[in-house]
Amino acid sequence: VQLVESGGASVQAGGSLRLSCQASGRTPFDIYNAGWFRQAPGKEREFVALIRRDGIVTDYSDSVKGRFTISRENDKSALNLQMNSLKPEDTAVYYCHAMTSRIYWGQGTLVTVSS
Fold first, then answer.
1. 47, exposed or middle or buried, with CB in 10 Å at 0-12, 13-18, 19+?
2. Within a 10 A sphere around the Cβ of 62, how many other Cβ atoms?
3. pLDDT by residue (tens digit) across 15-55?
4. Chain segment 94-107, per-residue pLDDT in tens
5. Other C-beta atoms within 10 Å of 86: how many?
6. What are phi and psi of 74, to 5 degrees?
7. Three-state SS for 63?
8. Separation in Å, CA 31 to CA 12, 23, 72, 75, 78
């Protein structure tokens, strides 16, 4: 599977962004559990959110719980991340991933939140 993120931008604190990840390839997207990680400058990549392949079960890091919402549209092979109440500490490159027995990554999209 190939993954391409979009939607990254520069916003002010308190603003919102919606990230999207478009999957392509021969394998149907709905076999993959999928989610988002992020990597801030000088820091390790960290978990943000996960959604099971059926779109029902989700999980979030404590730092984004209540502000971010992950969703997927299997018929469109798309993964989304709605980010509200953004904080400067949310500044990072956001990567989507899809996984079965291995993990596939997109190239990342930059989110910058200014105070």
1. middle
2. 6
3. 999 999 999 999 999 999 999 999 999 999 999 999 999 99
4. 999 999 989 999 99
5. 22
6. -65, -30
7. coil
8. 36, 12, 12, 12, 13
